[in-house]
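Co-fold these.
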Amino acid sequence: MPDRSDLPPIEDFIREVFEENFELLVAESGHTISAESKQAALNQVLLYWRKLREIAERVTDTEVHLTLPNQETPQGREYTIEGVVDIVREDDRVIMYDIKTHDADYVRANLELYKQQLNVYAHIWQELRQQPLDEMAVIATDFPHEVKEALSTPDPRALEMALAQWEPVIPIEYDPAHKDETIFAFSEVVDKIESGEFAPPSLEVLESFITGGWRRERFATRVCRNCDARFSCDAYRQYAMGRRRVAERGMVYFIEDDPDQEEWRTASLDASTED
Amino acid sequence: MSNFSDHLRIITGNTPPPIERLWAVMKFTPNDAQREAILHVNGPLYLTAGPGSGKTRVLLWRTLNLIVYHGVEPEKIFLSTFTEKAAKQLVDGLRALLGLVTNFTGQPYDLSGMYVGTVHSLCRRLLTDRRRFFADRHRPRPPALLDDLGQYFHLNSAWEQIVTFAGLHPLDAAEEINAIFNSQHPSLSRHRAIENLRRAFNRFSEELLDPKEIRARIDALSWGEFSHGDIELLLNLYEGYRKTLEDGLVTDFALLQQEAYQVLESFPGSGEVFEHIIVDEYQDTNTIQERIFFKLASGTKNLCVVGDDDQALYRFRGATVENFVQFPQRCQTYLGVEPRQITLNINYRSRSQIVNFYGRFMAQVDWHSDDGASTYRVDKEIHAHRSDALPAVVATAPSPPEVACQEIAVFVRRLLDEGKVENANQIAFLYPSLKSRQVERMKEALEAQGLQVYAPRAGRFLEVDEALDVFGIYLLIFGRPSLRGMGRDVEDFRQWLNTIEARAEQLRHADPRLAQFIHDRQAEVQRAHSDYATLLSVVSRHHWDLEAPYNIKRMKRALYNAPGLSETGKRLLASAYFDRIVQKRAQEGRPLSLNYAIRRATSLDWNFLDLFYRLMGFEHFKAMFDRAERFGDEGPVANLGLITQYLQRFTDERVSIITANLLENGKLSAIFFNSYLFALFRLGESEWENPEDPFPRGRIPFLTIHQAKGLEFPVVVLGNLYKRDRGAPQIERLIRPMLTRPDGEPLDRMTEFDIARMFYVALSRAQNLLILAHFRGPGQHVSPPFRPLLSDPSLPRLRDIDISTLPEARLRESEIPKVYSFTADYLLYKKCPRQYMIFRKFGFVPSRSQTMFFGSLVHRTLEDLHHELIRRRKLAANTHQEGEKRDA
Amino acid sequence: MPYQNEFARKTTHFDFVKNPEIQAFLNSCEYLIPPNEKEARELIRVFQKPPRPSKIELPRLILATDGSYYESALNDRIPSTRVGYIKIGAVLFSLEEFANLHEGHFVDPFKVAALQDNNTSLAFVLPSANVRLSGYSSVRDSFRAALDEQLLSEKTRFDPKNFHTSLRGTLFHLASRRPGEMGTDSPFRLKLHKCPTCGKGPIEIEDKLEQQFCPHCGAPVYPSDCLRLWEEVHDYQSNGTALSRLMMILEHLIPIHYMRFIQQKAFLALTKIAFFVDGPLAIFGNAAWLHRSIMIYLYEINEKLQRKGMPPILMIGLQKRGQIVDYANMIERFLPPNSLFAIEDEYRYKYILANREPSKHGFGFETYYGQDFIFKTREGKSFVFGLPYPFKSKEEPGSDFAHEKTEWHRYINLPVAVQLIEHLQTELYQDAVIPIALAHRYTAISLQPGGRVLDLLTRRALA
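Predicted complex below.
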């Protein structure tokens, strides 16, 4: 589709709304992110547009809220499930996309999770909304390491090649059996939430490796280290004690334990007004 | 040959059962008026609903009727409520009722497109609803919304700009502003001035006042106590305020509504976007809201308003009860049609003696206009559905407060002991204000009977145990600020500082590891402080300009080698990462200054929120989390969550990173305690309430009458029958001359009316028993409408009442299904239940987590991108069509 | 299940009982003999007028299941090589349509035949004596594999694309509810008491498509092994017992299968439909444990219905033959119309079962999930029917099950059941009501003239 002459090019539009959204989110959440992260977020959107323009231009319904009422948990609680997707409707086909800011390798390595989620959404779309559905896919907008590297080289062909090899659209098989199991698991979770079960995962889980992604990381690294509540968490404390000789110090606080401290420093100083 | 799924279709798929069948299943037997209201579909509906008349039920069933039996799509319904809680209850209730229909037919309903919420939240939604309110999906960027506290802090931080804009000098602006409102003894307090302005500005916005327009006719208006100069000044300040909002891309509640209204005005189809506009608690709407509603209904004319003028409580928020009382005329004006009026006047809540009592109470007030031609009250008579005529309203013996309170307390004890109420939380004590000596007396009397009290808004949030402990430790780490000034607030705050300091000392003493932690943090503060001095001395030795760009080659080594610079300082200066940033910024043409480099090198590794989360690792706090993890007491963790929200506001708006220049002369401590926390302290921010379980079992709730709005209790004690009539609020006197809309209640009578309405709300909360505290003695007063009722010899007294005649109250469980999100609930819980509890359930604000921000940023931008692409496609299609037309 | 007299061969039993040796033997036995008038008066004293609904609220729809099985030789010359067929019919019709069937007091058989468009049936083909699936070493293993595959097949699913909606999925739902150790928390898991190959167990098994194996011996295991039909499958003999057991299980499983999906889609639609099952509400044989799961399942649904202020599910087991039916026929002529009796254990052991020694836990403790009633309609026709017990278990502490199960007021649906049976009674088949008769006609294979075709088919298919 040719851009109309009186409209700004799409990439300019993206930069503009991105900046607006950034400011709005800072205002709303009271948080900010480092310049690096911000640039990475912008790149995700820009590369989504470059790589997936064909899909983006066909989206007919964005951020569609799907709800599945009348669910019941094993303990007899009634509840409703809610989710959000994007939809492409064409003359004879309907495609459902779930856009994730995860990387494609991670999605492929954990396909089961995504299959469950999309099949529940598909069920709602078809059964409740009585709409046809022909295909489903996850779009993983976190681009791969190769693209990241290509972005930092001045050679535009390197990026082109890296982009060509990137496969961010991961088709998800329609299999309603998945939805049954997922809804049941969902129901169990609702019971646990309602009956107040909030113990952290076990030490074994913290020590286990998370599949997918280009970095091999433990749960404790990927999840817990990004969680502010880890200091008061029994599971994390056990993990931390076991891994470092910190018994005499009790706990590891501040720097040693914090990822991206320097990035944080930059972002905070950027955000702070000169006093 | 059929198969299973065909059979299933035959079995499940059919038309919904008649609505009467659904009523039967839900054990609901509507009376004639309720039935008529439920089944009313077309044209404006004026639903006057007395207390306990089943209003919410009628609203629910009416909405269901529209959706199920008249095919109205949920997204074509706009339903406004007074609180988010009420909105949630309505949606949940509706979802449950629709679920019932689905259970019969297999036909599901999707409510996600329906507009339900407070006017504010609906306005916000409207402003982002490109699909429906903006031609070609193009919309201006809506500004971020300031809540009340945010508005206060905005006024504080933009103070200089605003007052300068209005031609005042920042130093005496507060006094000049306060002089408008109290010329005799103008306060010097900026806090007071901000509060005065906040009230005025909000009202200006709600009344859609245009400063230019007012100025044009200012000479023709007369104000009494206010001078034209006062008004000029306020208008100038208002304009200055609005400018600072615009510059900061923010808005407040009142202006948000104005913006929504402007969108409706400029969008051609805004009167047809919704087929049905339904407004609950209409008596508490204000001018801008009324305009929005009529605008939305201008096409379909299906505007249904529900309310009770007798329960109007929110004049102080700009609500004008006339909107409701005069709805029929307004309907004529705006929509050109007469509304159908239906009165729900059968009370299902209270025993008949209670209903009679509050009826007689209202009759004590003369509601007629001075000329007697009209009345300020909708004519009505409430009938009790419950028929027993046994005594249900009792007063204590007229006696001094101590005696009366004791009499009540003993009686309450008996009610509980004899099982007339199952739980203490079924007995509510209602007061015009909880900050009163009468409340204290009553609490003491109950406690003397071994009864526990729950008074969620009686105290300040800053006075809950968790806040005392956390902030006490902050005080130890950053040092106690010197607090200047006088006055009661200052004195109270000083006391508070004493308390937190003492508590923190105890905690430090009890936990050596915590003591060590505090010591280490103090050392870091000290280190940063001394490094700062060290580095500054290098700067002055070299005669460098602090604001000049930081030059690595020239400066780094000298700074690094500064004698006495700590290891941390060296590490930060030597950071290769930092060097890269310096180079990058220089390349981009925004070089970093030497000052920046020094601040960076002397910054701490943690901010106020980081510190909070580390503190939680110590036994005293950790134990609170441990209990909550196992479904124990959730109160402490909930309060801690609220602390993070206040800390986040501070790190966001004030100090996101602690740099050494802030540590000089206790500056940081002064900013945090004297400025930030003192403001919270004065504003009296209240403690956390669980919206789903508002009144903890085993405790007697003490509530303001405002808090009790919409609630009901088996037993209600009205703990104070007096509210002083101080005449029309100042803001009313200020605003009245500027208004062009029809006059409301006369200034000299409105407070009498307001007080009567407030007590009416209190009296009508009682189901089985209403107890009046009848104080007599020096300094004791009773508001006028109570007087004849209390002197009526037939009014039963507490000592005469036979407890055995009282009906027993049973607890009710609500079973309304909740909504769970796939990602935000299910997946988050699966990842870590504890994280779920802390961040999702109790709303802790994370300190560092960037993932959520990152995800939202990408998703929102992608959403905008998609909207833009859809918009462009449409434009292209239109152009194409026009082209074809031309060619044809 | 065949109707009385349909099996009837021209047997000459009169001569047979007159045989003196037989007479001598019979004199030493206790068995059911017709009562004389005086005895009969005594016997019918327990009958009372049935409860009647205050207003007539019959269900809108009827679903009836009935099955037949048939074992066929592959070849007349090798009669020992046999294949089994089971056909289960599910007939759905609305009472409104039923009203149109009547011509005066009689039902028009042509119109009944026309109703059959709304029917569905499931056929199962299973290896019996001396027939193995290729790749399997025994008839038993072949039978297991074939059964599991067919319970899972698309034709048994409510959603052909979703294998959880198969009959096997419903079996999981029931089996997971087994009380005690054998239950699981998840409707997608069940336990086999032991591995059919190595005998070790219990083994937990999932509802998935992939083949699962015994963790002890590595041999294949199937979810449907939990029915323990394999224990009765023989390599070299007729497998009539296993086939008839399976047919019976399916007759009870299918209504539950429907309930499960009606519940999912439109829960309250369950109150608009009545389920008719052929025979007593009981599961016999090695799968008898299933009766407890069904009891629990029905109880759970009924509890939910009750929370919505709705009556329980109307499920009626109608008996066409058996000892109670025989007994009812015997006393029928003494019984006044419009009388009902909820059979008590003591009465049953004494009069119906001819003084049989009562079982310790009461009658049908290991098999029944419903209570038997004898009912004579206003029109004077007698029926034996069962309604599900309104209890979660027979061993609730503090309850007297044997007594409580016979208390009419506990069966909230009893008045409607009585009303419905009266409404549906037919002249076409003795002791039958229309739906069961329809379901039966629909599935009665091989006993009808056309049944021979199946024999031919079998032979051709296996040739």
